[in-house]
Amino acid sequence: MGDTLLSLKGLTKAYPGVVANDDVSFDIRPGEIHALLGENGAGKSTLVKMIYGLVKPDQGQMTLKGAPYTPAEPRAARAAGVAMVFQHFSLFDALTVAENVALGMENPPKPRDLARQIRDVSEAYGLPLEPGRVVGTLSAGERQRVEIIRCLLQNPRLLIMDEPTSVLTPQEVDILFQTLRQLRAEGTSILYISHKLEEIRALCDTATILRLGKKVATCTPADTTARELAEMMVGASFNTPEPKPRDKGAVLLQVEGLSLAAPGNFGTPLRDISFQVHAGEILGIGGVAGNGQDELLAALSGERRSMAQSVWLAETAVGAMGPVKRRALGLLCAPEERLGHAAAPDLSLTENAFLTAAKRQDLTKRGLIRWGEARNFADKIIKAFDVRTPSAATAARALSGGNLQKFVIGREILQRPRVLVVNQPTWGVDAAAAAAIRQALLDLAASGAAIVVISQDLDELMEVSDRFGALNEGRLSVIHPVETLTLDQIGLMMGGAHDMEVAHAHA
Amino acid sequence: MIRLEKRPQPSKAWIWSAPIVAVLLTMIVGGLMFMALGSDPFEAIRTIFWDPMFHPQFAAYSRPQLLVKAGPLILIAIGLSIGFRAGIWNIGAEGQYIIGAVCGAAAGLAFYPSDSIWIFPLMVLCGILGGWVWAMIPALLKVKFGTNEILVSLMLVYVAQNVLNSVASGLLRNPEGMGFPGSRNFKQWDAAHNSELLMNTGMHWGVVAAFIAVLGAYVLMSQHILGFQIRLSGEAPRAARFAGVNPSRIIVFCLGLAGALAGAAGLFEATGPAGQITTTFNAGYGFTAIIVAFLGRLHPVGILLAGLLMALTYIGGELAQLMLGLPGASIQLFQGMLLFFLLAVDVFTNYRLALTGKETV
User: Band of the pLDDT at A504, cuts 50, 70, 90?
Assistant: First the structure.
């Protein structure tokens, strides 16, 4: 057992109605970066929660350095040398970096000593961070550094990272990877959870793949192609979306100098946003989460109104119109949050179909709802988009995330929009469904619609978009054709360096 | 260990059986309570649920009371239920009921002793308007300033009660009433009397209005787009805004409708069974209607049945006090139990019991 740090044997955890982990066994060696790969719902989170002492396994054993390891709570796990950086940060905005770090420690040293330690660690691992700064003023990448440094101060032997790159720009990802490689060189093991295949191939020594709670394989990612990894993860081969030839037509959506104050205390204001989308074109809008994506969608859907002249649908100024009028004119949207925003959780699929399709599908007659027609439309969506559900009478919340997403996107596409705006169309959706949704978007563009895809998934944007822009603190960068962009430039755009330098470089 | 586990979908079977189970549990536990008070539990339950309808001696008197009591409860509860479906919590129906009655009565009394056939319709219209205006106060405050409609509507009940106390002994006092508080008696003024429409049924215009309201609410909530928007606002406010529903319009509509129906109920009560505006004519229907709305699970047909059931326990309760000497408080406790058990049993609509074996601790 000399070269094994943590060994999992036959770990099983069942929740009512679902087996989250079924007989999972693998070993993590000292000083390796071990990837845990799987789709949403494959059981990755449950597994790491067991390692971190948040969940107790029903069956199976863990051994750490040869000794039995049964953490009753996260504190026990930390004491044993296991630390974790969560996907969602647990930081207090109003406190400083040092205060936040101290809150996560068992016996925090004196503030002055702690500040020095933070500086030392941040320099040693190339994670620049000022201990006295208030966390509320930090970017997502910097906040993650706070979490990482908090872990590193405890000298962990195993560091668990849950989807660490989902909130980072490509440049920040590079810095993170250098830090992780340095840790590996010093003998720290890292369990790296992700579904981004290229990252795993670039960074990790070993990969364990989970599917439906079971371990499918352990392999060396550098020797495996991304496609093979994806197929192991999904369990079947699927078609990659294929763009059809498209003709660029007239401008269908035009946004001119759109500015809106932030909704509430935690929103992002939109600042002077301008862009055009032509018929048959897909505009990709990237950016790190929380930089104005939701706000932009709300301004385009009509949930928040602006000056009439800020938003144009073909020849009509629609900025001051509400959602109903915009839909009638052909401007349709699909928001990011499926349950509660795009669909009402406790209403049936028929009712949810009616939610946005009432006008365009002519589902009312003198104010009375034609439920028969609404049901037919819901059935049509279910059939066309392969939504797995017992019937259209099923409540929306009973569907899996991917199936509901197919329903929501299908609902808008089948209404034949002139302009479609989608936010995170494949977030949390399995690979096969994601491919189907992207294909549907490409087909819709080929049929002459103008499409705006807002997404945090760069791979997705590169796959479907013709042109690309990035949101940063509510500002939209200059927009460039996708084929002229390198990953570096995209990173600069996302990080906010979207002013004249970039524009000149590619003018 | 026993745990509650969320069902993927609300159980259809429980939606319909929960009220029945709740009534049965109330009978059992209530029976035990009556037994502890020294009465025969079976006789007490029979007196409350059976005798008002079928007792050879008393039924002739108490049977018409069923519709008399159920009418205003149903009319108010229908209005409340529509707001509750939208997540708008109007607790002040009692105040809207009082102000409706006062306004309607005042409009009629202004023309005393005219015997025009337009007097009663005018009074109904003014009753509706009075309740509507009183409900517009919390509605507009909520829309304009974001105030909490629960607090505002509830506090307006006490304002309304004071208005009632004032007009009953002042503006609307019967000039021929020897200085006693209370308005003229509408039973003695045919043009303004909300009389029994069919002999010995208790059926008056308020009961007719209640049945129409049940039908109207059913069509509105299940077939009309406005009803869909109301439900959507309650289920998922963000989705409602995405669909294009204007939240302010829903607030104004729901509170206004509830106020109008409560106001009408007040007017029908004052001109009918109560007969005059007195400081105590209102009898708490506006609050009991909240229980009726939930007992009927905010569904029009359910509210119809719940209103009748609630009225039955009122009449039966009075009968039990009279015949068995049970204290009035025990009857109120019995009614409270009904709501308690309904809410408790209701949990099983969305959750099921799960027996988890070994949760290793």
Answer: very low
**Chain A, chain B: beta-carbon pairs less than 8 Å apart:** 76
Q: Is A428 within a domain?
A: yes
User: Which residue range is the domain that position B159 belongs to?
Assistant: 68-325
In contact, B105 and B267? CB cutoff 8 Å: yes
Minimal CA separation from A490 to chain B, in Å:
31
Percent of chain A with pLDDT over 90: 49
What distance in Å separates residue A74's CA from the closest CA in chain B?
15
Per-residue pLDDT tens for A187-201? 999 999 887 778 888
Residue B132 falls inside a structural domain: yes
Residues A221 and A269 in one domain: no
Residue A507: per-residue pLDDT: 34
**Would you say residue B6 has pLDDT above 50?**
yes
Residue A379, chain B, CB below 8 Å: the answer is: no
The range of the structural domain enclosing residue A177 comes to 6-234
Q: Across the interface, do B243 and A367 touch by the CB < 8 Å criterion?
A: no
The CATH number of residue B315's host domain is 1.10.3470
Q: Is A55 on the interface with B (CB under 8 A)?
A: no
Q: Is the pLDDT of residue A475 over 60?
A: yes
DSSP A187: T
At A265, which CATH number?
Answer: 3.40.50.300
Question: Is B211 domain-assigned?
Answer: yes
The answer to whether residues A102 and A158 belong to one domain is yes
Residues of A in contact with B298 (CB under 8 A): none
Give the number of domains in chain A: 2
Query: In angstroms, what separates the C-alpha of A341 from chain B's closest C-alpha?
Result: 4
Neighbour count for residue A169 (Cβ, 10 Å) = 25
ipTM: 0.85
Q: Indicate the average pLDDT of chain A.
A: 87
- Residue A346, chain B, CB below 8 Å: the answer is yes
Q: How confident is the model at residue A237 (pLDDT cuts 50, 70, 90)?
A: low
Is residue A239, in this structure, part of any structural domain at all?
Answer: no
Q: Kindly write down the DSSP assignment for every residue of A16-81, as one continuous string.
A: TTEEEEEEEEEEE-TT-EEEEE--TTSSHHHHHHHHTTSS--SEEEEEETTEE---SSHHHHHHTT
| Same domain? A55 vs A189 | yes
pLDDT tens digits, residue range A406-465?
999 999 999 999 999 999 998 777 777 888 899 999 999 999 999 999 998 888 898 899
pLDDT digits (tens, 9 = 90+) for A202-231: 899 999 998 888 898 899 988 888 878 878
Asked if residue A225 and residue A286 are part of one domain, the reply reads no
Both A188 and A101 in one domain: the answer is yes
- The answer to whether position A386 is within a domain reads yes
d(CA A318, CA A254): 10
**Are residues A204 and A68 part of one domain?**
yes
Q: How many domains does chain B have?
A: 1
Question: Is B44 domain-assigned?
Answer: no
Last residue of a domain, one of A234, A264, A295: A234
Using 50, 70 and 90 to split pLDDT, how confident is the model at B1? low
Instruction: Name the domain boundary from A207, A234, A261.
Output: A234
Residue A245 lies in a domain: no
Same domain, A81 and A184: yes
Residues A203 and A257 in one domain: no
